[in-house]
Amino acid sequence: MQLTLEGVNMKISKIQFEGLTDAQMQWASETDWLTQKDRFEDTICWSHKYIYWVENYASAVLATLFLQQNKYDYSISYDNAMDQYCFTTDYAGSWVRV
Question: What is the DSSP string of the chain?
């Protein structure tokens, strides 16, 4: 799912983006996500590199506005296992491999 925000004139910063997200992790390289595909309510992009979870739909709207402003593709869904909205994208944010 993609969002279209008509008439919105707001700039979201990287720091604000990070504050809107609750968790993030690698997505495309983790092969067991496809075995859990039923936990997601909407169509989700399986080729993006990262997945982020947010507390509510408003946070998803604002976080993906940042992605739109910076020309990153994204796909929003709802994760029933986490009981949270989530989105996938190629934007790495502050994610680091530990």
Answer: -----TT------HHHHHHHEEEEEE-TT-GGGGGGGGGBSS---SS-SEEEEESSHHHHHHHHHHHHHTT--EEEEEETTTTEEEEEES--TT----
